[in-house]
């Protein structure tokens, strides 16, 4: 058997030097005259161990990480092709605590398989969901997705099955499935990881969505900041077409479904579903008023399912193992698993897929291991730039849509940014307003103008000009933005701003005036 | 000095791109991406050609071009360096990194070095949030930026 070596081609791993490691391994193989196959897998998501190299041995896979190019020679000297010991030795990857503690349903294959090999995909349980779906009536598929309790993983948490049912029940000559892969929230990279590490699961999920709703055309709208994900999805779609997964007869059934990859152009607001539809149509990414719902009048005025990458990528496992299996995970009205992305100033950063219900404290302290700098955790922002900042006193909040809403926060796309005690929360509140000003589409006045006024007012607080009055003004402004904006950009910018003010009031007090030097 | 193609040449090269892509559903963004790839920016002379082929007004095309951060009205430097300035990178000191880089390159955000070597841009998230602070140099991703990596970047854009 020719040895197989896995070196991730995932952007996160590449950013940490995976390409140089792969080149060093190739060179070492050539120098030593060893024949081996290098597989560029995705990442398993333990970024503190990337670049993580794995070797397939007789006793299963053995991982080494983080590997620097300069260490490759010594890896060979230690006999790593047969799992030999080395100070980067990690053992079986699924026994690494960070990975062993996860419940991997959506990300079961990510980092394990060759992302572009349909054979690998099928060998690891892929396509079973679609095979089941082609044998079912559309209404049955929709029923199964509804019963699974799957809610939109993009942030809004709307039940996916209900969205699908609306599209199924609306008659039209053409319907669309649009995948929102405009993952612009800081601290989130789950969509990117799945597109780079297991693109077929997204294609499978979209094809199931097509069959379930009568949509024959799909679009994946990927942000331009993700060139590697774009390239991977394009290759995967071509491979899927060749294999009959897409086309006039999906898996030989009478169902037609095909898809296209589209690239965004750097507008954060296009992650909002109606802006995204306008952008796909070739217009400015301006938000649309709802109603009409996209499910009734969406892309080009046709009924459209618009779902986040993770929502769609979670459908195959539901169709494979059943609604009850998926629903069994989670708590309250938050069912199934959620890929939590632990990021920022954190010791063990990465993607952690788990059933809903873990507390924020467990995630940050226990799984994440506290800050990277070793200083105390001051705040964590949950849900990206529109999410609230949580202080330690709220670390008992369970990861659940409703529990976070009850604490004036949101789960969003489940990204968590950890900040140590050097963070200045006034600066973070100011940035939230500034970001809103940069990215506002301009449609709603509270968002377009309020964000700029917000920056100015927070600047006044920083300069100590009537701080109490300014805080009152910002509070009022946030209220106007929250209720006077059509979409989450203007509507949710108040979350980071107000949470910073409410939980970290000391940072908004005027700095003691330094005495003038004699 | 960067030579600018003549307007007739821009029109003919634009027409070829438009012809290739106009059959797509919602072709404007793919066309604009194609044009930016061809010219390094979206030249003014390309707009009427697109407008006519898609049967929309030049104002509409202009509106779309100016809405999106990605489309440039002028060519960028030989290298484009995007430095993440979003929250996860902020938590790891991206503002300090930005200040250092601006000093090393002698330019601010949205500026191009006088020798045309590099354009520096802020970007709000590259999805490398578990290896912050991060950057992208000509499409290549770089994580956990430190002084050593900054020096490497500067050496590369100057070479």
From TrEMBL, chain A:
The record's section on Pfam families has:
Complex1_51K, NADH_4Fe-4S
PROSITE patterns linked to this entry: COMPLEX1_51K_1, COMPLEX1_51K_2
Q: Which domain of life is it from?
A: Bacteria
Query: InterPro entries given for it?
Result: NADH-UbQ_OxRdtase_51kDa_CS (IPR001949), Nuo51_FMN-bd (IPR011538), Nuo51_FMN-bd_sf (IPR037225), Nuop51_4Fe4S-bd (IPR019575), Nuop51_4Fe4S-bd_sf (IPR037207), Thioredoxin-like_sf (IPR036249)
Which keywords annotate this record? 4Fe-4S, Iron, Iron-sulfur, Metal-binding
**Signal peptide segment:** none
Look up the record and name the cofactor or cofactors this protein needs.
FMN
Domain named NADH-ubiquinone oxidoreductase 51kDa subunit iron-sulphur binding is located at 426-471
Q: Which family does it belong to?
A: Belongs to the complex I 51 kDa subunit family.
Protein name per the record: NAD-dependent formate dehydrogenase beta subunit
Q: Which organism is it from?
A: Mesorhizobium escarrei
Automatic annotation (TrEMBL), chain B:
Q: Per the record's keyword annotation, is Metal-binding included, yes or no? A: yes
Q: State the needed cofactors, names only.
A: [2Fe-2S] cluster
Which InterPro entries does this entry report, sorted A to Z? NADP_DH_HndA-like, NuoE-like, NuoE_N, Thioredoxin-like_sf
| Gene3D superfamilies reported for this sequence | Glutaredoxin, NADH-quinone oxidoreductase subunit E
Q: Which UniProt keywords apply?
A: 2Fe-2S, Iron, Iron-sulfur, Metal-binding
Coiled coil feature spans: none
Q: Which Pfam families match?
A: 2Fe-2S_thioredx (PF01257)
Into which family does the record put it? Belongs to the complex I 24 kDa subunit family.
Under the heading NCBIfam families, the entry gives: PRK05988.1
Name of this chain's protein? NAD-dependent formate dehydrogenase gamma subunit
């Amino acid at each position: 058997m020719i040895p197989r070596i896995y070196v991730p081609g995932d952007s996160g791993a590449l950013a940490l030097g995976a390409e140089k490691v792969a080149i060093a391994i190739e060179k070492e193989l050539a120098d030593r005259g060893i024949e081996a196959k290098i597989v560029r897998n995705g990442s398993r998501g333990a970024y503190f161990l990337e670049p993580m190299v794995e070797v397939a041995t007789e006793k299963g896979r053995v991982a080494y990480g983080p590997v620097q190019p300069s260490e490759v020679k010594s890896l060979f000297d230690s006999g790593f092709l047969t799992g030999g010991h080395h100070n980067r030795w990690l053992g079986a990857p699924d026994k690494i605590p960070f990975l062993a503690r996860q419940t991997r349903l959506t990300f079961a294959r990510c980092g394990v398989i060759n992302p572009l090999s349909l054979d690998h995909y099928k060998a690891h349980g892929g396509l079973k969901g679609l095979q089941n779906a082609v044998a079912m009536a559309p209404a049955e598929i929709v029923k199964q997705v509804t019963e699974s309790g799957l809610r939109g993983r993009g942030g809004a948490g709307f039940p996916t099955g209900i969205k699908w049912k609306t599209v199924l029940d609306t008659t039209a000559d053409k319907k669309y499935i649009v995948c929102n892969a405009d993952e612009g929230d800081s601290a989130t990279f789950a969509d990117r990881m799945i597109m780079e590490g297991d693109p077929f699961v997204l294609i499978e999920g979209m094809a199931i969505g097509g069959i379930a709703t009568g949509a024959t055309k799909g679009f994946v709208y990927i942000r331009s900041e993700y060139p590697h994900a774009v390239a991977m999805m394009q290759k995967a779609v071509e491979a899927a077409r060749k294999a009959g997964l897409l086309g006039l007869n999906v898996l030989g059934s009478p169902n037609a479904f095909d898809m296209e990859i589209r690239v965004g152009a750097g507008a954060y607001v296009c992650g909002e579903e109606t802006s995204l539809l306008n952008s796909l149509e070739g217009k400015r990414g301006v938000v649309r008023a709802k109603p009409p719902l996209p499910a009734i009048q969406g892309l080009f005025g046709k009924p459209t399912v618009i779902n986040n990458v993770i929502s769609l990528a979670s459908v195959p496992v539901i169709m494979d193992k059943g609604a009850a299996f998926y629903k069994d995970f989670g708590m309250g009205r938050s069912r199934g698993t959620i890929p939590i992305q632990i990021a920022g100033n954190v010791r063990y950063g990465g993607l952690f897929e788990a059933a809903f219900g873990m507390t924020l404290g467990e995630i940050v302290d226990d799984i994440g291991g506290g800050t990277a700098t070793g200083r105390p955790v001051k705040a964590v922002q949950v849900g990206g730039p529109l999410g609230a900042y949580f202080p330690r006193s709220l670390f008992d909040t369970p990861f659940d849509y409703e529990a976070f809403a009850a604490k004036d926060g949101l789960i969003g796309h489940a990204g968590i940014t950890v900040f140590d005690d050097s963070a200045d929360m006034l600066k973070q509140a100011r940035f939230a307003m500034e970001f809103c000003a940069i990215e506002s589409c301009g449609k709603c006045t509270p968002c377009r103008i309020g964000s700029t006024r917000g920056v100015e007012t927070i600047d006044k607080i920083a300069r100590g000009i009537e701080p109490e009055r300014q805080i009152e003004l910002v509070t009022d402004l946030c209220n106007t933005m929250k209720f006077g904006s059509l979409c989450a950009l203007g509507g949710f910018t108040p979350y980071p701003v107000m949470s910073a003010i409410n939980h970290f009031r000391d940072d908004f007090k005027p700095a003691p005036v330094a005495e003038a030097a004699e | 000095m960067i030579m600018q193609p003549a307007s007739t040449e821009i029109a003919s090269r634009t027409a070829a791109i438009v012809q290739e892509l106009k059959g797509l559903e919602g072709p404007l963004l793919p066309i604009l991406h194609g044009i930016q790839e061809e010219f390094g920016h979206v030249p003014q002379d390309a707009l009427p050609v697109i407008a006519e082929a898609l049967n929309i007004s030049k104002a509409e095309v202009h509106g779309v071009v100016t809405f999106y951060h990605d489309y440039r009205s002028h060519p960028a430097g030989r290298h484009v360096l995007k430095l993440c300035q979003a929250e996860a990178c902020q938590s790891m000191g991206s503002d300090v990194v930005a200040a250092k880089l601006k000093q090393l390159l002698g330019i601010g955000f949205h500026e191009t070095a006088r020798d045309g070597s590099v354009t520096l841009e802020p970007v709000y998230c590259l999805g490398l949030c578990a290896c912050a602070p991060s950057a992208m140099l000509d499409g290549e991703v770089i994580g956990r930026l430190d002084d050593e990596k900054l020096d490497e970047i500067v050496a590369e854009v100057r070479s």
